Amino acid sequence: MTIQVEWERVSCSVAEVEAALRWLAGCKDGGPLGFLRHAIEDPASESAVVLDALVRPTESMTTATPEVRALAVWGLVLDEISRTGPTGEAADCDILNAAFRLGMPQHNTWWRAVSDQLFRCLARKLDVLARDGEAWRTYVEVAFPEPQASARRMPRCGVQPVFLERQLVNVEMRRRTAYRRLTVRNVVACEDGVDGYRARALTGWTGDLAPMPVKGIFGCRAETRPGAQPGDPLTMDLRFPKPLRKGERHEFVSLACDDDLDEERHWINVEVDHHGIAPCAIDGEGRLTGGLSVSITFDDCVPEACWWYAEQADHERRVRPPAGDRRLLEIRRGVVEHTFPGPCRPREEYGIAFRWPRP
Q1: Helix, strand or coil, per DSSP, at residue 32
Q2: More confident residue, 50 or 32
């Protein structure tokens, strides 16, 4: 009898975990971290009700912020997927993309990976973690490793060996073109000998890419290199005054200018081609000391709507959110801005999209 009662209790928990993960996998208007954090911050929200089985156990982390609690849950999910899914890095990426980025919860690879083991393993671990707040620490590091931990891993092909503590992007629009884009970066080297930062000097958004001049304003100097293949756009290397040692920090500022005022932009995008960007941090005077913030100043040509996006494909970010959606942004005195509360993950893209008035 005791065994039957215990089985029923675990089965119910497994069903709740399954429902929560399916809901996360079906959401296309943001990343899982954002929904998890929202569920923790607003217990009366829809996401809080659906994700209760995942977020309630983090109450054992009595002093943790909502951001850290959300990171812990996401790290647990990532860890279990890597254990139960097909082996190999490529297979793991396919699972995560299918389940939590492209919005395809019935993807065959994902289904095979999770249907038999993942829900039950997560339910068991959540039950244990609900009584041991310290045990969550491991999963926070899985979801978002510190720069030192990230540096111990060999960077994947194309990922720059730096971690960004802060990135500020300020864009001046002229007509419908991103005329000037000033970027402030605070980086931490993830290995010895980091002597610069590779900037993609591109304009356009439909595949018609053209080189765009980039200048080093502070803490760097720009060097132009040809693309890897004939016809590829130019690559801009922002060279530091001296190579950085592992763990060493450096701030630098660059400016990209686009004089083609006939070019029409539909978003301002930040591609994370390095070890990631830290979550939002603000000091006692209200200044942003960590995270990604994007600000756009429009001239007389103002969009009819602006919204932020995170970890979405090109065709998804172009879809205007419905009225009342939390991603819609207000344009105040010709300026729209957004600071991303959570960390920005490697190989993902974040930014602000807009819709121009029809002629």
Answers
A1: helix
A2: 50
